[in-house]
Amino acid sequence: MLSYQHAYHAGNLADLHKHALLAAALDYLTGKQKPLSYLETHAGRGLYHLRGAEARKTGEAEAGILRAEAESWLPAGHPLLRALAAVRAAHGPDAYPGSPLVAAHFLRPGDSAHLAELHPAEHTALTRNAPFATIHHQDGFAMAQAVCPPQPRRGMLLIDPSFEVKADYAALPRFVGQIARKWNVGVIALWYPVLTDARHRPMIGALQDAHPEALLSEVAFPPARAGHSMTGSGMFVLNPPWGLAEEAARLGAIFRDRA
């Protein structure tokens, strides 16, 4: 559970999919003059540098956000591009926001944020990079159970585990159901990897059976390198904000045509 470090994968195609949907959702939610809460179960360090040693080792950002920018996958003014520009203006041209700093671009005074990260080094970095939030050095699932329903009640939860713990696949449908009962007005978004062995399928089937009204967005892309088992990215969203289904459809078409 403590070995995963996202710096090796920041800005990859899965991040592009996840962060484009996250930014679109928050852009809509913060367009209304009502305060909200943002929660994240597995926040990482919040800020990455795409020319750093970790990112250069895998090259995943080159095939992800950097390629997408060079080829104009996202239209000018897209919420993710706005967040990315703000982070680069503050932290340098090679900076890339993890989901906490994507969220930070949209959050306003009066909004609330709770971020959990268990990895000691990542937690230390997150504390430095996300001063706008309450940082929890604990299991993210436990944090969400304790905080939900948050105040303000309007808002969004991003569930984004590394899935290194295979038991997460079986446990997540029950966890999502518990949070949905506690926080029936919250936008609850679960990111998951699409893998060649399809281990995510029973989880998604159980979630769809329990929440048939939810939005499911999956995109496919080539493996990052030979033998790599991730060939796509998925987002399952309860109470999706207005317009998110259309954004998911646009992203799906982009990945089908270009990835």
Automatic annotation (TrEMBL):
A family per Pfam: RsmJ
Entry protein name: Ribosomal RNA large subunit methyltransferase J
UniProt-annotated binding residues for S-adenosyl-L-methionine: 19, 42, 99, 117, 139-140, 160
GO cellular component: cytosol
PANTHER family listed in its UniProt record: RIBOSOMAL RNA LARGE SUBUNIT METHYLTRANSFERASE J
Similarity comment text for this entry: Belongs to the RlmJ family.
Site feature (Interaction with substrate rRNA) residues: 4
Annotated active site: 160 (proton acceptor)
Organism annotation: Paracoccus siganidrum
Gene Ontology BP, a term: rRNA base methylation
SUBUNIT field: Monomer.
Higher taxonomy: Bacteria, Pseudomonadati, Pseudomonadota, Alphaproteobacteria, Rhodobacterales
Enzyme Commission number: 2.1.1.266
